[in-house]
Amino acid sequence: MPVEEPRTAPDEYTVITLCGSMRFREEFERLDAELTLAGHVVLTPTALDPSTELNAEERARLGRIHLQKIAMSDEVLIVNVGDYVGESTRREIEHARSRGIPVSFLEPHANHYYAAN
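The chain above was modelled as a monomer; its predicted structure follows.
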């Protein structure tokens, strides 16, 4: 059986990863649809049922997977409803910036350290 070349998305689409607290799930869903319809590839955190209980290993794995999504991105959009940026999101901001990936915020961010790009 011949080996096929891997299929890749056209370079014309910007890959945007959404980061933030999943307490803003509805905002993530809205942004995912809006940005996708605008022609972007959107990566989001895994949205689990709120009643799902994860052990430490599962939480760590999901965190690593989301960091990989960030590394695959052209840019990151922080879903900071009410200017909320938690500890995990701060790590994600640092991860993106350490790789030179631009970070923007849905709402103006009060902490200038994290708001600076």
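The domain at 15-45+55-109 is CATH 3.40.50.10140 (Rossmann fold).
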